Fold this protein.
Amino acid sequence: MRVKTEARRHAIVEAAKYVFRQYGFEVASMDMIAKEFGGSKATLYNYFKSKEEIFFAVVQNTVETDFGPIFLILRQDEGKPLSRLLTQFGGEYLRITLAPNVIAARRMVLAESQRSNIGQHFYENGPGLVIKRIAEFFDHEVSEGRLKPCDTDVAAKHFKALLYAELHEPYQMGCIDNVEQGLIDDVVKRAVDAFLASYQA
């Protein structure tokens, strides 16, 4: 019996990430993932029960790798103005969510969500988790008197929607070929200004 290792599990997840993005969830198979991984299908089943379980691991890995560091921004208040913290967070969040690999993953999930619970899992461990973390930060800001008393879950959704408002649909649908950092900075500034105009104490 082969001993399971974290390094091998990580290698399987990375191989699956590539296969899912190249071919989509429906077309991707355990055989394709095994080939990309360089091992046998039996090895995959030693770590994961199904293709769905591997996909869930891919989502979790993406959240931890790409989004984990930006959540730290919201903990580093240390006297920084709220507008600066939101601008820093918003810039990093947009940069990550507009990355081609993240857009590709979102398209794949949308295509598959009518046939399985993958969409729900992706939301709970992706966008839903982001909203939860922002809401927790807003709870702190309300208690400190920097934000008006409010439903912080709704406020978090409003802030996220403002960040998405100008670029996400056009980029995801191919209307924009490239998003430069200067454009992201301008969009984030307008989103933060609009949010604070409604919620700042």
In short: The mean pLDDT is 85. Residues 134 and 156 are 6 Å apart (CA to CA). DSSP finds eleven helices and no strands in the chain.
